[in-house]
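[job 0412] stage=complex_fold ligand=iron/sulfur cluster status=START
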Amino acid sequence: MSFHYSYNVRCLDYQWCNSLAIKVIIDQEECIMCGTCEDLCPEVFVLGEDDIAEIVEEYQTEDTAHGEIPEEQEECAQSAADACPVAIIHLT
Ligand code: SF4
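[job 0412] stage=complex_fold status=DONE, emitting structure tokens
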């Protein structure tokens, strides 16, 4: 038997559910402002006022370079990470 848990399922154990979130980090100092991440995954990435890539506000944690996304956004974010020409998007 296999189980698939959606991040959106109401959690009874916050710590456990929070551990399902996927961490995303953008190394913003190296961003060349190409917009590829936003094109491929606007649900997670957006170019800021200075055209540097940011995590969308909904998923930001401590700042615009750090975020946590639900499982359903992983494929999208991973495609952006794979396509980033300077490989500065990291998912863990
Ligand atoms: S794809 Fe990479 S280099 Fe291009 S805007 Fe996004 S983070 Fe910056």
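The pocket of iron/sulfur cluster is lined by residues 26, 31-37, 53, 84-86, 88-89 (CB under 6 Å).
[job 0412] exit 0
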